[in-house]
Amino acid sequence: MCDPPWAGYAVAEESGGRTQVNVMDPTAMSTKDFSSISDNFQEEFLLILLQGAKTANAVPNPIASYSRGHVMLDFRFQDSDLTIVTSDGVRFKVYRDVLDHTKSAFQDVLAVPQSIERSADIELLDTDIETSDTIKLFFTFLYSTEDIQAPTSEQFWEIIRLIRFCVKCDASDVLDYLRIYLYLWNSIEAIPFRDVILAGCYMDDLDLMVAAFANSNNIWGGGNVRMEITASLVAQAQLSHKSEGANI
């Protein structure tokens, strides 16, 4: 009989308050089995999700705003032919053609002649994820006008809200571009493990969450666990919390 894929691997050590994942000699499996690894991981995984949900629903702090501090363009072009009005009343003047050629719900709206004839404005109403900060970030990734700096953990709620907005309006082009940045930020350790996991959860992107474990500076032991085990643990945790009705 073949050994299970996790044979010789275990989660065990506590070092400086951080749980470590280490390659272990097969004889050590007598003290740590896959079930305990899975239970330990799911507990940590749920904690990350709960902390992330609390952060994502926090009241925005204008002083610490990521979009206001790092995005230089205001997206109010003088020769624009379309105005996007956010839920907090900010008006972005952009080009219809850019949105019309971007995979998103905007493309469908602009394809309806009646809506164009009735008004040159598109009004957004969701006070949670359709505010000016979120829409400004949306246009930043859409126009790709500048290198985008990694946010701090305190600012990462803006990235989460951008993801939620993109999922809501099916903006796959922007999500794909954001995904590239998330992989980059993860690879150069510009954002912590927790933020990559949160982004992967909201994007339902298992590969991104697995990539977080390959980072040498994460709470699960510096990428020493094999990828197939990591994928199994993440997928199991996702399935478990979805079945419990967790609101990620």
Automatic annotation (TrEMBL):
Q: Where is the BTB domain?
A: 80-146
Q: Which InterPro entries match?
A: BTB/POZ_dom
**Which PROSITE patterns is this protein grouped with?**
BTB (PS50097)
The name of this protein is: BTB domain-containing protein
User: What organism is the protein native to?
Assistant: Kwoniella bestiolae CBS 10118
Q: What broad taxonomic lineage does this protein's source fall under?
A: Eukaryota, Fungi, Dikarya, Basidiomycota, Agaricomycotina
